[in-house]
Amino acid sequence: MKRLTSKNQTVNSLKYLALVPLFLVACKKEPEVKDTKVDTVTTIEKPVDSLSTIVKTERESNQKIITVDASKMPIRLNLEITNPNDQIILKLENLDQPKIKGYVKTETPMNVRINQIRMPDNTFDGPFGPTIEYDTKQKGEYWLIFAKNNMADGEPVGKFFVKIE
Prior knowledge:
The chain has 1 helix and 10 strands; from the N terminus they run αββββββββββ. The chain is of the alpha+beta class.
């Protein structure tokens, strides 16, 4: 009889032991899934509106002169030099801020830079590179002159982007 009781106890123990893995699996806690909200709004960059700031455009021999209203800063322009000896003069009318910041970005490798800046008192400064950060001590009309760098190699013809702020 003792043997039968111990056999029943062993069977009962085995039943309980068989249930332990089931309890462990059933009670296993899944990692909490957090609901993260993703902003699905896509930012669409505004196309460069070069007409809104341009007051007038002129051509004198190898110079293309573009007059813009500096009170509507920042100014973004897509420009192009079609002849290796051409210059683009960007006239900033009504400039009334303490500093000019700007840069030139080319579509393809190109030899173009901000060559000079002309102040309202007809004095010049430069040369500069593809960027400029210049303190404006006078109010009035400033000119930024874009052309090839004579001290560098590369094609001076092509399209480029200018941002002035």
